[in-house]
Amino acid sequence: MNRISALSMAHQEGLSVPIERVGRYLRFRWSFVAPVPVEETRRRLQDYFTRLGYTLASSGDALVMKRGTLARSMLKWSPRNLATELTARLAPAGDGTAVTLELQLNRTGHTLYGAELYLHAWELKEAETYLRGEPVDFAAMEHFDRRTLERVYLSMGLGVAIAIPIVVLIVVIGRPILSDLGVDRPLRGAILGGLGGGIAGSLVWLFIRVLLNPQKY
Predict the structure, then answer these.
(1) H-type helices in the chain, by residue range?
(2) Single pTM value for the model
(3) Domain identity same for 130 and 154
(4) Helix, strand, coil % (nearest 5) of the chain?
(5) Domain count, the chain
(6) Domain boundary residue, one of 108, 135, 162
(7) What is the pLDDT of residues 45-78, one digit of tens each?
(8) Do residue 41 and residue 128 come from a single domain?
(9) Domain containing residue 16
């Protein structure tokens, strides 16, 4: 299992949550002591994560909540549509409650970038702020999620726009060369199409990688 560090933003100093890669999952873990009793902690945690779009799955010894699905994340990509399962384990700690939050993110079919890691880590850390009775900027986190989606669309548009003239040039130059080499259709079209698709995909990946760096938000 590889350890990963969640990235930080200029206006949110010190944001660092341990993350483990386990097979197709990423597991986030954050622990702290809340200054309220166990049952109140359970209730306020459920309220907090419900406001972030989670739904209750189980409320036994541990509080389990879920958000997003693989199908939804494929159809409409954004950090909050990714399939996640949150488990909150609570134990008495003096006059307060020891809280351990574990977030499991299913990355099947997804390449995850800094912005997604950042938002999930941010949400976990703000749970501690919420339980301490301090204000949490829910609007800022929601804006971050929307802005990430907008940047994905922008990356796709830029990648395709830049790829078009390159692909045209490849076709103009490559078609006679392949013909001279005795490569006829449909193989010639498949080769040129593969080159064009590879270039467009690489450009989109490059723009996403750059634009989904949370330090640039």
Answers:
(1) 38-51, 70-75, 114-131, 138-180, 187-211
(2) 0.76
(3) no
(4) 50, 25, 25
(5) 2
(6) 135
(7) 999 999 999 999 998 889 999 998 888 777 777 8
(8) yes
(9) 2-135
